[in-house]
Design goal:
By secondary structure, the protein is mostly helical. The protein has a domain of 196 residues. It contains 14 helices and no strands.
């Protein structure tokens, strides 16, 4: 049986009384829960947290390493990164890579430096660690879905929009020099983008492209630098990047598309990273 329209059915029982009764106090809606990180975001945070836990925050999370995957403990362990990345000095591999990027030195100089046994040992040991972490958090770098996933993680990291690292920040002692950045998953040191690129290029020099899974990961890593570094510079204002990049959704869509293209073109990603280093140094008009 069909229900007559409201205009024909007449008033509902008690409707008049309800209209005449005083309105009760309106109940307040329950407090809305704070939005929780989505699962992918939790995984992105875990990836960057682990990278930092083995390196800059080794003393909190992996004291057994004595800073081996960082710059050492200042005592008996010198650390691996100092063999090819700058901190208190500029090691020969770093100087050779910057000359290559600035077109003042040949790539062969860089490749010769990273083939020195003590440098090669450090590069390979660090890559073993990073490769294992990558596989656990992302999977197969040759998979297009993994490529998009990794680039999304990198964009959020670059723009400083990941959930805060409150647990890590709370574990620092008062006055710790890392306190300013410990509560965030992002990069404030602009050279670290190029440090990632140097390590990636060094590993590619040592093992070549016969290691297909490793090569795919290295191409994706360089794509992350080529797309993530300009996002970081455009959103955070650290240094110069391409003039076309702005802190807006147009740029983000553009970088996503370019990042996916670079993820399957190692050489193009490599060249773009070096171009970004030149722009960082001199500005786009001088490169």
């Amino acid at each position: 049986m069909s229900t007559p329209p409201a205009s024909e059915a007449g008033p509902e029982p008690g409707a008049a009384a309800a209209r005449e009764a005083p309105s009760p106090a309106r109940a307040q809606p329950p407090a809305q829960p704070q939005p929780q990180p989505i699962p992918d975001e939790q995984r992105y945070v875990a990836w960057f947290h682990e990278l930092d836990a083995w390196t800059e925050y080794w003393d909190i999370y992996h004291p057994e390493t004595r800073g081996r995957f960082y710059f050492g403990d200042g005592e008996g362990e010198a650390g691996l990164l100092g063999r090819f990345l700058p901190r208190t000095t500029y090691p020969p591999p770093w100087m050779a890579w910057t000359r290559w990027a600035l077109r003042s030195g040949p790539p062969e100089e860089f490749r010769a430096e990273v083939r020195r046994p003590e440098v090669a040992e450090a590069v390979i040991e660090v890559d073993d660690l990073v490769g294992g972490l990558f596989a656990r958090h992302f999977g197969d770098a040759a998979d297009p879905e993994v490529q998009a996933d990794y680039l999304e993680a990198t964009f959020r990291f670059a723009r400083d929009v990941l959930p805060p690292a409150t647990e890590r920040a709370a574990r620092l002692a008062p006055g710790d020099w890392r306190a300013r950045t410990a509560g965030r998953h992002t990069l404030d040191g602009d050279l670290m983008w190029f440090a990632w690129a140097l390590h990636t290029e060094a590993m590619e020099t040592l093992v070549g492209r016969s290691d297909r899974a490793g090569h795919a990961r290295r191409a994706l890593t360089l794509a992350g630098v080529a797309a993530g570094c300009p996002a970081n510079f455009a959103w955070r204002g650290h240094r110069r990047t391409r003039e076309e990049y702005r802190a807006d959704q147009v740029t983000l869509r553009q970088l996503r598309a370019r990042g996916l293209a670079w993820a399957i073109d190692y050489d193009a990603a490599s060249e773009e990273v070096r171009a970004l280093y030149r722009i960082r140094e001199w500005g786009e008009g001088q490169t």
